[in-house]
Amino acid sequence: MTCGYRFRIYPNDTQRKQITNCFGCCRYIYNYFLAKRNELYISTNNFPTFSEHQKDLIELKENCEWLKDVQYYTLSMALQNMDIAYRKFLSRVTTNNETKHPRFKSKFDRKQSFKIRCTNANTKFQEKAIILPMLGKIKCRVSRDVYGRILSGTISRNSSGKFFVSLLITDMEKDYFLSTGKYVGIDLGLKSLVTTSDGDEYVNHRFVRKNLKRISKQDKRISKKIKRSKNHAKSITRISSMYERVINQRTDIIHKLTTQLIREYDVVCIENLCITDLFKQKNLARLKADASFGIVRDQLKYKSKWYGKEVIAIDRYFPSSQKCSSCGYIEKDLKKIDIREWKCSVCGIEHKRDINAAKNILYEGMKIYYS
Ligand SMILES: [Zn+2]
Predict the structure, then answer these.
(1) What is the Å distance from ligand 1's center to 334 Cα?
(2) Which of 19, 72, 268, 273 is the most exposed place for a label (fewest CB within 10 A)?
(3) What is the pTM of this model?
């Protein structure tokens, strides 16, 4: 099992120059070999393999003065990225007859990145810094402890101009949560993101909507500016930061929520996600919400593995909201989403729609668990 960690870094002027230089060199390598491959593919219908390109790369690095400061590994990874993109493109050509070539990378791309060879020997964490190969000590917001074996590292700049280091880790130390002997079913919804069979509700914060007005105001301003001018770039940076904040807040809330559920319960039962259903959705709000549902499910699944708990997914077409959780009668008229509370016409128990659904999901999940 591998796991990714991402930390914000604050390079100084020299490091910033080094990083920008690496972006440039990787872009150059990517574009150089892409052009070469395109040319050969068009004229001979064949192209050199990755390892043949690697030989050219060694030669190129020796002859270009400005490539000397960048690790061979970093350049080779840029070459590999091109190779992967090219093979993807070729597989699309044969299956879909789609002929969109891999795009050349541009200096104006908002997102830039390159890989560095990080290992446990050359990568060290300090209290407010990280020591990286090639770049040395960089100020870093170390938001969590890293355990395990470091496989690789990526330095990136996002569209709002912030820098990050991402590490791929394997062989993590197992850090199990204690068993609580408690089981829960959860219902995912628009009004409350998560409702549990114990009756807890976690509200869906509508960050996007709140911030959307501000973002659309900025969007209008952008259209008035000349493309690729300094002011245009500034506005894009500002908008990207706003989106980023919204996404970060949402991710943060979902992370806290899923960790809490995994900590508190030994078995969490959820409804399974059906990807084809997702694309049938015409309602945008619903679609966006479904995207959050997907994140909740994914996080629950991998965290349950991390912390030694269990997640059980039940069939999506199970009538969780129409079924009375105490007598099992299926109330056919309950399909409309706006009926929040109802009374069972057989046993007379009053239900809150989401809690009743969560209870049904729990019972169904437990059947699978004990089968
Ligand atoms: Zn009933």
Answers:
(1) 13
(2) 72
(3) 0.67
- Domains of the chain with bracketed CATH: 2-170 (no CATH), 174-203+257-371 (3.30.420)
How close is the Cα of 323 to the center of ligand 1, in Å? 8
Q: How would you classify the pairing of strands 2-10 and 163-170?
A: antiparallel
Task: Compute CA distances 289 → 275, 285, 294, 343, whole Å.
Answer: 14, 6, 9, 28
**pLDDT digit string (tens) for 9-48?**
999 999 999 999 999 999 999 999 999 998 888 888 888 8
Report whether 360 contacts 344 (CB < 8 A). Answer: no
Q: How is residue 55 written in tokens?
A: 């030989």
Distance from the alpha carbon of residue 348 to the mean position of ligand 1, in angstroms: 6
Measured CA to CA, the distance from residue 265 to residue 180 in angstroms comes to 6
Q: How many other β-carbons are positioned within 10 Å of the β-carbon of residue 370?
A: 6
Q: Ligand 1 center to residue 30 CA distance, Å?
A: 64
